[in-house]
Structures are given as C-alpha cells and as structure tokens.
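Sequence dictates fold. Next comes a concrete instance:
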Amino acid sequence: MTNSKKIAIIGGGAAGFFAAISAKEHHPEAEVTIYEKSAKVLSKVKVSGGGRCNVTHACFDNKKLLTFYPRGANYLRKAFEQFNTRSTIEWFKKRGVELETLSDNCIFPKSNSSQTIIDCFLNEARKLGVKQLLQTPINDIHQLSNKQFELVSTNETFIADKIIYTIGGQPKNNSLQWLTKFNHELIEPVPSLFTFNMPTEAIRELMGIVVEETTTKIEGTKLEASGPLLITHWGLSGPSILKLSAFGARLLADKKYDFHVLVNWLHTQKEPEVKKNLEETLLGHSDKKMGNLNPFGLSTRLWHFLLEKSNISVDSKWKELQGKKVNKLINTLVNDRYHVSGKTTFKEEFVTAGGIGLSDVDFNTMESRKVKGLFFAGEVLDVDGVTGGFNFQAAWSTGWIAGKNVI
C-alpha cells in the first residue's frame, strides 16, 4: 500500500460517513473524500425518528435480527458477523455518545436529538482528516486503463483509486445507469415503509387512536404482520402496517396500491375465544348497554365504531346479542376489512426496495464482484429493513466493512 491512495466516498449520508470514518481509521495514510451532491450532509439522519434518530434496535441475536429485513437478509448474515448491533452501541459509546433503549427496543441517543449523531460524525471526520466536497454530484464514473477511476462531476473530474458508493435509496435507477456498463444488475426500486390510504373508509374519523396489539393481513396473500396500529386521518399506520408495506413492497406495487387489508383488532385471538368472551359477558351483564361495557380493552370510540359497523346499536343491551349479530361482531373484531387505495410515505423516512443486485457484491468485503476497487454500502443496495432502526444498522454494518476493506 502506498501513502497516496485516494478513496472516494460518493454520498454524504449515514452509510457514507460511516464508511469514510472506517476507511480513515483502518487506513490512516489514505486520502478519503466524501462527494455529496447537495449542500448538506446527513440530511436523512437529521429527520429520522422524528428528529431523534433511531440509531439501531436492541436485537442482539443475529439470526433474529435478520428477520427484520424483507430483502437482503441472507447477504447481511455475513455483514452482521463482522459488525452488528452490539458493535454499533460500542462504536458510539467509545466516542462519548450515550444511547438509551426504549420499551419497544428502539435505541436512540440519550439526548433525544439526531444532532448528537450528526455532531459525532462531523467531529470524527474532522479529527481524522476526511475531506468533504459539497454540491459536487458525481454524474458518471469511468475505470481507466491503470484501474483508477475517473469521477465526472458537473464542471470537473476527479481521480480515485477506490470508490465506496453510498448514495442511498433512489426513487428511480437513473443515477445508477453507469453501473450497467460494468454489467451490474439493477433492481427496479419501489417504495417500502409506507402507510395505507383509505379515502372511502369512515374509520379515518377515529384518527389518533392507537391499538397496541393487532394482526394485519393483505387479503388474498400470505402477508401478515403484528404490532401496534395507528388510525390516521388518511387511513392506517403504525408498525403493524409498516411491516406489511415493507414485506409486501413489490406485491403492493404490482397491485398499484389498490387492495384490501384485514385487521384482527384482538391480535391473536381466534373466533372461538372471542365467542366465548362474548357469551360470558352476555351472561354476566345481560341488562347492560353494549356501548358501556367493552370486554376487549379497546378504546370506547373504537368499540362504538366496531359495534355500529356490525349493525349493532351502542344502546342495545347485551342480552339482545343473538344469532347473526354474534357472528357479525366476531368477524368485525378479528377479520375487519378495509379498502386501501394509495399510500403515503412514512414521515420523512423514504425507503426503497431495489437498487444494486446483491449477487454482484461480496458481503465479506462489500466489494463489487464485477469491478475491483468499487465498493457499496447502505440503501443503494437492494437491502431494506422495517422501521425501528434496522435500515441504519444495515448502513453502519456495510459502511464499516467497506471502509475496512477498501484497501
């Protein structure tokens, strides 16, 4: 190795900074430069987690950790063997960033501010001598006869010995077209992590209600997810819905986001169990109004809505719950059906399924199998996780590995 190796990090986001810091730490004599097309770096880190930055997730079993990735799990197995959740926590701790784990196992900076993470990265980059060139889009890349790379920007070109490509998830593959000349497979991107729009459904009037444990399904498919569900003014959101959108990203895109979602408001309870509960309530409280006695712990507003949807008056008495009304109510509670027509991006967290085909990348090093000296990290790969810190964990892991192995 010579002292003059030039490493180009293309993209100043989460994976880009982690890769740059890793490269400079592992290869201090190299010249590491981040090329960022916009005027700001780490913009997604800034807005993630509502401005708090969900750094990672308290899942310390790598096998279980992989189950949170709809795409890329088999490949990430190699990455997590080198740098996983524990590694992330230790990395930040070593740099004075205190983290805390919330009740849902999401891990945030103790300061509750994403600026803490941004400041950590900027300070580390400055301390190590990582250069930053902002407003410098790299529009094309050529490999020269001496195996160096020519980076083509708007008004100038740059030379690099190695490249770590970390431009994040893209709505279209236009910015990746230069890879086709190296025969890299590009997977067409589609949105992941989105909420469901239900413009014709009256349940939207209950916006703000959260049900902590639900099970949701996409009708006519095997897609199923569990977790909290949030009713919004446009439809349904919350972890249960976001998991469905992530694991069903391509299928729902094929459906043009027009489908039916089924909700079990009682999580894992089945019809016999619910029927028994209703019968016991009827026997013990026959003269009470159904609207005033909810045996399932649902919010009053939601309980009333589900009763009315089942054609049962909230003023009717429990002893009137007979025949078809019982079956109708049970079905509404455990198999409620809603028409979805459209999607909305989850907060500011834009995540895609798609990007660079994974079989073209060696996940032991993150180097391209097609082009020596070209490495990848982060969401530019066809890797994505559900909400909860998993996408950042993939960025930290792949970025750290790419930086370590870039020379």
Q: What stands out?
A: The longest strand covers residues 210-218. The chain has two domains: 6-190+349-405, 194-345. The domain at 6-190+349-405 is CATH 3.50.50.60 (FAD/NAD(P)-binding domain).
